[in-house]
Amino acid sequence: MNWQADGDKNWNRLSSWLHTSPPDLNLRVLVLAAHPDDETIGASLLLSRFPQSTVAFLTDGAPRDTSLWPAGVNGSREDYARTRKQETIRALHYAGVSAQRMFWLEAVDQEAAFEMRSLAERFAKLMAEISPAAVVTHPYEGGHPDHDSAAVVAKLAIAASLLDNKNRPVLMEMTSYHARNGRCVTGEFLRPGSLPELCFEFSRSQRERKRNMMDAYASQRLVLENFPIDEERLRLAPEYNFSEPPHAGKLWYECMGWPMTAARWRELAATAIAEAQEHSCL
Known about the structure:
Elements: H1 2-5, H2 7-19, E1 29-33, H3 38-49, E2 54-59, H4 77-93, E3 102-107, H5 116-130, E4 134-137, H6 145-159, E5 170-174, E6 177-180, E7 183-186, E8 198-201, H7 204-216, H8 221-224, E9 231-236, H9 252-255, H10 262-280
Parallel strand pairs: 1-2, 1-4, 2-3, 4-5
Antiparallel strand pairs: 5-9, 6-7, 8-9
Helix pairs in contact: 3-7, 4-7, 5-6, 6-10
């Protein structure tokens, strides 16, 4: 992708967009979050700064396996998914994002890897409708299989875009979480400092807004306690080799004993990428 190879040019564009004061209120940003609350963890400032922002959710945030649900959540999987959507509407209200600017790609939590190609097609259609200047999603870090699938989906969708290089969105990443020495690390990228980053230190009002957004996700309270509210980091997405693990040793979702394995995820990613490339050549 030629637009991504021109790293210096895109980095200058990105820095200019995000640091301009007052912000360009017409700038369209599209956030691809794997689950409800991921957008709040990584992009609350971006969403509040640009009122034309849109959020697409890869999954509904409700796994089939109830052992993966937080304590206190009851009812059916569909009930839980509705709860997650209601929490999302309340949370994003604090950032000025209306329900009309939220879109659901409808994968099941923990299962996005099985649908990467079709999810990329859905996301590409949404991207064509919105014509964003920037797409923001997760890095490939092995924190959650759905996070890694979001990284693939965004890459495939942009690669399949009918827009010329000049008008294709810049692909950016927000922080999520990953394993380091057997522990979960939040609020920073896997290899901090390996690529240029934009770090936004929050004012008191910005911290309060992010806290309100997190509190709106009441079902995720115990999980969200592990994430900082004092800053957020963004960077250009690097070119990943999805056939290789993001780091040595166990990935975080393997440490957690979740159903997906790193080897299986890479097989699924390779298949999705190959099918997308074959389709683009037809």
